[in-house]
Design a protein that fits this description.
There is one protein chain. Helix content is about 10%, strand content about 30%. It is mainly β. Among the domains are: about 200 residues, no CATH class; about 100 residues, no CATH class. The radius of gyration is 23 Å and the shape is globular. The two termini are about 40 Å apart. A 7-stranded antiparallel beta sheet has the order 1-2-25-24-26-14-15, covered by helices on one side. A 7-stranded antiparallel beta sheet has the order 8-7-13-9-10-11-12, with no helix packed on it.
Amino acid sequence: MAKPKTLFLAQIPYSDGQEGRKRIISFLPATGHEVFLSYSIGREHGPGIIRDGLGSPKMQEVGRPWQYTSDPNRQRVGTWRVFKDSSSEMSHVGEFQRTHPSHRVLSVQGFGDLTMNLWNTAYVNNALTCEPRLLHLRDEPIDSRVYSCFIKWQELEGRPSPYSIEQTRFNAFEFDANRHSPNVVLIDSKPVADRIEFAVFGQQVIQDSKVVNARQFVHQFADMRHLLTLPNLNPSPGRPRFYYGAERTDDVWFGEAQLLDDRNLRRAALTGSVELNRLYKGLGCSKKNLEEVLNKYGTYVGDETHRTLEEGEWRWIPEDENLVEIYLRRNTYPCTMLGVTWGGSVLSLAWTGKYDTPGGWTIEDAAGELLKYGATEAILCDEGADVMQRGVDLDSELEIANKREHIRAVLIFAEKAQQSHAPEPASGLDSSGESSAPAR
């Protein structure tokens, strides 16, 4: 059997010798490529990660009531492996091959935030679930939010492909009463649950062929480090330190608790300096200790009290020794994204590398790259160690391998095993050869 044709669009090199990989792949529904959502059965409602800014994120341990862990690997106990192996554990690819024996996997992309964090919600009705499922954390206000979702439609209905990104509402009360009701999912106030295979949330980073400013979706993040580089008050040498009234052996990020408590402060921190309190919620950080941390983080501007701060600069507020004015740096944080083009293609972007180092992308940088390749709409899928993009018929040296063996959810790109292959499109072109991003 012939190998599937590579749909690799771009391997984007790092500059200045930095280690990491950036890759964009195009999938063409018109030639039979499909996208599937796989999640760990039994994790429909979490448990989710708890972030209060007082220490490292924690989660209730599966099978251990009232016990919490900040270990990222223990937080994934009970979730599925990515790839099938000789163990008895469930795997996303193994279950996909069982439920879709006539399909061949082209690629697997991480989507590990699903039901791990607030906002990360989905509706699924496919061969994996056998019946409709609504996935969300128990304390998610799902009936009052509007979610930007990647949609897989069951029929084209005049669209160039079965995939689109839509503003979506979910109705958990209707689902509890009748999970087969079309009113469980609404788009443009119209019931569509009976017309879609899945709808999964991601922060919308491209809308109407324009990159969305992160200020518009910062409130949808539980972890501010994906957007901002926060000074670590508790680095490994010298732990434990005494913060928030207790000895802390995990990372403690200056300003995290205050930012999480104030939606407008988060928005302001993306575009200018903000005032942060070294005693907020009982942090109890001394001036000396904070100065040591901030001098490593950025530049102290001293008595220049009337100058507007630039990114990475900080100073004390003269009238209050507990307040620091600081312009937090934007973070470059590994991520995966999913875009759709005007011509109907689906674009998969992934990049990995060291956080907060030259050569990486901010979220808007990554979205800008998808825009170059024709994406008219796009969502952020995942960040951090869950980032992966594997399985396409490319040199293994080019793939972005999974750092975690277990991930709560993934996207699987596949095709029918006997599918013939269309010629690979040029960059920025759809399967018809026409521009995938015409003026709108």
